[in-house]
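User: What would this chain look like folded?
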Amino acid sequence: MLRSSPLTLLRGLLLAVPAGFLLGACGEEQHPLERVRAGEAAVTGQGVLVIVVDGLRWDHTSLADYDRPTTPFLKRFAEGAMVFSNAWSASPSLVGSHVAILSGCDPSLAQPPDVRATMASETGVEPTDEDAWFVPEDLWLLGRPFLGAGWRTAAFVDHPMIAELRGFDRGFREFVEFGGEPDDSTRSIGVYGVGRRFVEWLNELPLDQNWFAYVHMNDLERAWYRHARQVAERFGDEGAKDWKPRRELAFVPPLGLTEPLFHALPPSRANRTRPVSLAEYEVRYDQGILALDLSLARLLGTAEDFGRSDDITVVVAGSFGTGLGEHGLYLQAGLAEDEDLHVPLLVRPSRALAERLGWNATPGARGRTCDALVGLVDVAPTLVDLFDAPSPSRVHGLSLRPLLEGSKGGVRQRVFSRSSVVPGFAIVGDGTSVAVYDPARAAPAVRRSWSRGAPDREEPDPEAVALWQRWEGFLQRERRALHFGVGTADRAGADELRALQGASAPAPSHGKPQEESARVGEPADPR
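Assistant: Here's the prediction, encoded as structure tokens.
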């Protein structure tokens, strides 16, 4: 087991900021962290923090050299991290994307095998990816391997659909839902709410306690309700005030009566007082990203004053992107396009983990950009592998440890994603993307298939359709095994999975097999 003696950066942040700031203040009695600060004690536990941001698309970040400086802090943060520039979500839906990140599996496993057929036959309407979600008990979520190894685990979520009712609490000793606990008088949401609750939780842990935390931020989904300048003015960033709407986007999207709509603005996100052009909405989105970035700087960056910025392993990821009209959807995701699925992913190892990965001995190991194809389903198996946590028997993702250790080759050749607004899918390869929509049900704007860098096709790519049908067949068997116990995960299934993903050999596993976790035991309230 990896051991270190870190003062977790967020504990340091709590001590560094004045009372009433983002994270509050310590009590009157001397807190153990004060003794750490005075050199009278040491933190011996280790921490893993996963921060997931909804609606954050890759190409609107400074990591992608976007022409507006939307993420200056993340760009600085990346100087000590590996940035995966070719990371893709398994779903453009809020619930599905979090299932994929937390489980390391295709999100369809959180839906019974016959739910779509049943709903379609009874209602005549094809269900969306937000319908009938429930995480089955035998589908391990990321907190469970750490909990089984004796770590304290907690999740702080920022949307009512990521809820205990849907099974998202599995593996978390503390699961703090949208708005906090019922007795939380503030009921604050967004980075301030979840950030404060996370640090309050962390501040109460024993100094020798290992911990894992999942922090969810939905701030960008609310950016449309603010005036275009409010975000910048709130944080005093003079440069952002001068961002001008682009002339080529200076038109007002049409409004409709229901949502989601193609080539229309969902009414719930429309300005109720005056028409707002798409160019203005884009500025709001970019300024919303900047506001979030500045909040993350406050949450993570202040500990640099203590020289402790490398004492925690941090993962930052976008769960899905946001469409700005490129393929018919304004201000929301839901299609199988680049803007919906291409997201940022950063992994910054702790100082001790970086040494194990060979970063300290390799010049230029820190601050690298990796362009190998990866999926968000790879996050869970990567962390389990890095920290030798008990490994679940069913996982679709692949460990990115070889890439973190400096391997030149990728671990996969394909990522599979499905559309949530209309029936369709995307198969992303190394430098290519193919999206196919059902022509009988899709809106005219997306009744085509396409490949990045090539003209649109009037007929679906037959090779892509055949590959997707094989993938769907594999998932159908996985769902039946998981929900009904019909069949089990076996070597043949694992070989088929690697073949579909284009993984020529199994990724090396340093984690404990699932059976070994039985001897560890779980706390009385294992969630």
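The chain has a mean pLDDT of 77. If you want, I can go into more detail on any region.
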